Give the backbone structure.
Amino acid sequence: MELKSKIEHLLPEEIEKRSFEIITEELRERGISLPAEQEMITKRVIHTSADFDYANTMVYSEDAVSIAKELLKNGADIVTDTNMARAGINKKALAELGGCAHCFMADEDVARLAKKRGVTRAVVSMEKAANIEKPVIFAVGNAPTALIQLYEMMQGSRWRPAFVIGVPVGFVNVETAKELIMETEAPYIINRGRKGGSNVAAAICNALLYELIR
């Protein structure tokens, strides 16, 4: 009975609001104050993951949030490195702004070329995405090789991604891949360390979209 008494009885539409209230309270208790521009993005990542470490490990390039919002307002597309991340993005909100979400990882031509060259599909996917004839926000939540390929494509060429969300999760090359992107001139939102994931990449995209749509 004691446990049951702790249950909060909320309407479905009230649950998210209450969740963000709890996040705000816990951040205050931890003595963490987030920069105003970054606050809702970092909070939505915490909401998605229930992990407060993100309050300390999320890194934003100069004016990152305003740059990303401006891109979305002008109809930028989003390219993900997993269909899971693409599925998690609010495509209706993105479409209202004139954008579209893509993931090329399962494309037959990508798989065929990756096998022929002995590289990951993420590498070929990033190359394919670079041919989209409009600004693209790259949202990487799984494959560090996608970030490494974006870095390589920027070396010795004038091509630059419009924006990079770099939050792959894992152990092999993950931390290095994120740091490489932070050495470039591309605007970014990165989570330092091993944590991240497709859900985190989608959460960042949605946080930016909701700032513009709601």
